[in-house]
Amino acid sequence: MNAEKHARTSAALAAFAFGALAFAAAPARAQSGNHLEIIHHPNYDKSVFMPFSPAIKVKSGKILWLAGGTALPVYHKREQILKYLTNDLEGQVRQTMDGIMETLKAAGASPKDVVHVFIFRARPRMGDIGKASAVVNSYFAPHNHKPTTTNLAVLELGEPEQLVEIQVVAVVD
What we know:
Helix content is about 30%, strand content about 20%. It has about 170 residues and is α+β, with helices and mostly antiparallel strands. It has one domain (about 1-170): CATH 3.30.1330.40.
């Protein structure tokens, strides 16, 4: 039964992520970070803090899809799961974002190239959305960048101890 739920969850995540592909296609030309335009509504009030941008227009570049990241190292052994998946949402988000930053760097990208962040939280509690968002935003703030974001509570992720999975879409030259 657990494998069946995992397969349904994985299929739903893949379908959801594939749907976002339609908005990001564009020809390659610009330098990292210069090929994106933040879009705000005409009545945008700069005094109101929002941890995300309503939209990002891709002016040029190639799509970089990162696999869903977890607090586990990308390359790990099955017996290491409990070592990394502690019952600490903020800790898991931090470890996940560290791995995502490594993957972006390996691809020649930076946080400023990220156009969308999907955050999937399992076993949500009151206040978790703010805690997870604050940690994720701390990785983009030094670059003065706010990617578009989807933050969802889900029934279950790949491992019972897993509290978060984060997927990133970036556009690079």
